[in-house]
Amino acid sequence: MRFSKAQNIEDLRLVARRRLPRIAFDFFDGGAEDETGIARNRAAFERVRVVPRYLVDTTRRSTSAKLFGRSHALPFGIAPTGLVGLGGHGTDLALARAAAAADIPFVLSTAANTAIERIVEAAPDHTWFQLYFPRDRAVCEDLLRRVGDAGAHGLMVTVDVPLPSKRERDLRSGLLAHSLTPSAGLAFDLLTHPSWSLRMLRHGQPRFENFAQYLGPKAGAAEYAAFLGAQIARPLDWDDIAWLRERWQGPFLLKGVLSVTEAKLAVERVIDGLVISNHGGRQLDAAPAPIEVLPAIRAAVGEDFVLTLDSGVRRGADVAKALALGADFVFVGRATLYGAAAAGGAGAARAIEFLADELDRFLAQTGCPSIEALRELEIHTGPGHGHGSGRVRE
Ligand SMILES: Cc1cc2nc3c(=O)[nH]c(=O)nc-3n(C[C@H](O)[C@H](O)[C@H](O)COP(=O)(O)O)c2cc1C
Fold first, then answer.
1. Which ligand 1 atom is the nearest neighbour of the CA of 279?
2. Which residues contact 1 (CB under 8 A, 6 or more apart)?
């Protein structure tokens, strides 16, 4: 598959697969254990059927949507993805710029390879920050101060990483061992992708730049990896969340909630909203697909609480399905990452264009002149999807 021929996100994935060495592609593409979560995310979207309505004038259509009072051109944004420098130098920046150009939110990961200050410079009106709560509270307070000073719009606190998950592709490749054991397989992998390898040699291994100032100028890749491992993969509780909430004034979302009970508690604890997510199938392999639990969570928290969703979105129609089933906004992780890995900034932009075009076609096909109208559609979901809306039929 050539980039110029790509027609959808899966095509961009195939270009990325050819372009990246396996060790990098597998990190982007893979998930936990048997990777049934990844498959479930797709199957759950595919099960959702939407009854079209044609006798509505949709000549003029709008895809714009609001997130915390801020209007965006599209109802989706780019989810936080760490260590994307593996795809190429400057990938965080390429994603942030593509998001700003398309007028959609970009969420920078704590584990990014570009510091928050540089990202906000490049995308001042579109940057959010994802927080992995560092164990060291002084580091955390300083990081929050920097994120606020830089001007990030909101905070997503990731709760679904109580420990590093078992990602077997990465364990096999040696990526998660934090030291690349020189093996014949790896050498072949790198030699057969010489342009990637040369770029990596020129720019050096990607580092976790949000932490650069806490580690000092001499720290190498291994120190960074050890620091990150010690600081962020850990269980959180509601006291941690309250501590963070007190220190962040702007929009505050919990990312990774899938349970109705925890969603209700989030409302009580004055959290502003959720990202219903199973981390793209990268944490608990047995977790339900977010789209399956969304209707029940919406029913439990009421209409005013902000619900966003990610995991498994590969088509504009998936964005529409999530909005129709009760989400206010949607995020994509791999979709834009495959684009960036396939062709840098142009590839990320192409991924956004595919999703936007497919979403617009979906609106026309279902008689929806606006994003709000999606909520009126008749939706059929298969068994497994939670109940919660009168319009949803199994
Ligand atoms: C390569 C990669 C790195 C990720 N890194 C992070 C991260 O640093 N923090 C986080 O909260 N989620 C991270 N995620 C999860 C995404 O934010 C998002 O939940 C997931 O990608 C959504 O699923 P999708 O890829 O099917 O769209 C990562 C996902 C991928 C694919």
1. 19
2. 11, 14, 15, 18
279 is catalytic: yes
| pTM of the full structure | 0.96
Phi, psi of 67 (to 5 degrees): -130, 115
Cβ(133)–Cβ(157) below 8 Å: yes
Cα within 13 Å of Cα(293), Cβ side? 26
Among 279, 380, 385, 387, the one annotated catalytic: 279
In this structure, the residue with its CA closest to atom 30 of ligand 1 is 81
Strand blocks (E) in 207-361: 252-257, 273-276, 306-309, 329-332
pLDDT in tens, 338-367: 999 999 999 999 999 999 999 999 999 999
Cα 387 to averaged position of ligand 1 atoms, centre (Å): 27
Distance 80 CA to ligand 1 centre (A): 6
Coil/strand/helix, residue 215: helix
Q: List, for residues 94-148, the tens digit of each pLDDT value.
A: 999 999 999 999 999 999 999 999 999 999 999 999 999 999 999 999 999 999 9
Q: How far is CA 158 from CA 139, 149, 224, 275, 309, in A?
A: 17, 21, 20, 9, 13
Other beta carbons less than 10 A from residue 336's beta carbon? 33
- Residues touching ligand 1 (Cβ under 6 Å) are 27-28, 41, 79-82, 109, 111, 130, 158, 255, 277, 279-280, 282, 310-313, 332-335
Query: Rounded distance, CA 343 to CA 6, Å?
Result: 11
- Taking the CA of residue 110 as reference, the ligand 1 atom at the shortest distance is 8
